[in-house]
Design brief:
Length: 363
């Protein structure tokens, strides 16, 4: 066989691309983690998610109380009985086809962690105009307005300096400049931080998060609020995975594991470290050594890192996870499908590359 023939060898048989897709004999090694939120918590929608291939149900305690998420979990259990699809909390049911079944649900509890939140007591949209000033204040008694936003952290003024970048929005971040803003710290005045808004946007909904680019936030990785949720809702439902948000060092994982072991029932719960900033990137090797799995939160990473650098870290991190035999999960894979039924070509390619690299997925 000559070298010219080798150059023309097809890595993929092109004719096969035109053949109809069909289910393979072997199940997919990639799992889909689905976050059950306000628009996906009904029995009907969860059933459709299970039929489409959702493997793990994720409960995000950034919003909603324990009662709210408990109702969602009960809907998930009903949907599993209805569809007879396992959603990789375990419970026993005897109502499927009048025969006893053991239904396994893999449940992931996502902590809030040291997340900065805007305290918005109202539900009216807040318009923010480019080139105007916005005050971030720890005084939570004040009302949110286009010129002032109360936040849940009193140490922001000590953490930032003029010139630092702060991102603000309901989700971090879809890339849509109509729902999130980026700002530059203009002045620190007492406990208040005065920012210059760089783009116009309308903040809608009740949850807005802040991310200060490459600045250490002096808050515990597992705050008391998260511990309360874990010790109550988490224990009650025997959660299988704890998604530890904003993991920054290996010590964060060790402390979380120590806390879980004290609860008894959660001593076997696996900890997935969520890498969301440069601190987690710098300490990635020690975090990987301590954690049971890794979640790459690309929304926040795309703020701390230049967007063109995120994929390089993703490639390197997933390779290291594969070498260590630990699952890797990537987030924000189909943002456009919150509004559209089909993913973009770029999103489909992104998902395909993630699968080929050896990722789990999260939607």
């Amino acid at each position: 066989m000559n070298s010219n023939h080798l150059l023309l060898e097809e890595p993929i048989r092109m004719a096969s691309i035109l053949e109809p897709s069909r289910s393979g004999y072997f199940p997919s090694m990639t799992r889909i983690v689905g976050t059950l939120g306000p628009k996906s918590r009904s029995v009907e929608v969860i059933s459709r998610c299970l039929m489409a291939g959702m493997s793990v149900a994720r409960f995000d305690f950034t919003w909603g109380d324990a009662e709210y998420h408990q109702e969602t979990l009960e809907n998930l259990r009903i949907a599993i009985k209805k569809t007879k699809k396992l959603c990789a909390v375990s419970f026993i049911s005897s109502s499927l086809d009048e025969k006893p079944y053991v239904i396994t649900i893999w449940v992931m509890l996502d902590t809030t962690g040291p997340e900065l939140l805007v305290v918005n007591k109202g539900d009216q949209p807040i318009p923010l105009e480019a080139d105007s000033l916005l005050v971030l204040t720890p005084d939570q008694e004040k009302e949110a307005s286009p010129s002032l936003l109360p936040i849940n952290f009193s140490g922001l003024a000590k953490a930032v300096k003029p010139g630092d970048t702060i991102f603000l929005g309901q989700y971090l971040f879809t890339g849509s400049e109509t729902t999130s803003v980026w700002m530059e710290v203009s002045e620190v005045k007492g406990d208040d931080v005065i920012c210059l808004i760089k783009n116009s946007a309308v903040l809608a909904g009740t949850l807005y998060t802040l991310h200060v680019s490459q600045v250490h936030i002096d808050l515990p990785t597992l705050p008391d609020k998260d511990k309360e949720v874990i010790s109550t809702w988490g224990v009650k439902n025997s959660v299988d995975f704890l998604s530890l948000s904003h993991a920054r060092t290996g010590q964060d994982i060790r402390q979380a594991r120590e806390y879980l072991s004290k609860l008894g029932d959660l001593s076997q719960t696996q900890i997935y470290a969520k890498i969301e900033n440069v601190e987690g990137l710098v300490n990635f090797d020690e975090i990987l050594q301590e954690a049971d799995g890794i979640i790459l939160a690309r929304g926040n990473l795309g703020i701390d890192l230049p967007p063109e650098k995120v994929f390089l870290f993703q490639k390197a991190a997933v390779y290291k996870c594969n070498m260590a035999g630990k699952p890797a999960v990537v987030t924000r894979v189909v943002d456009s499908m919150t509004d559209n039924l089909r993913p973009t070509r770029a999103e489909a390619t992104d998902v395909a590359n993630a699968v080929l690299d050896g990722n789990y997925l999260v939607l």
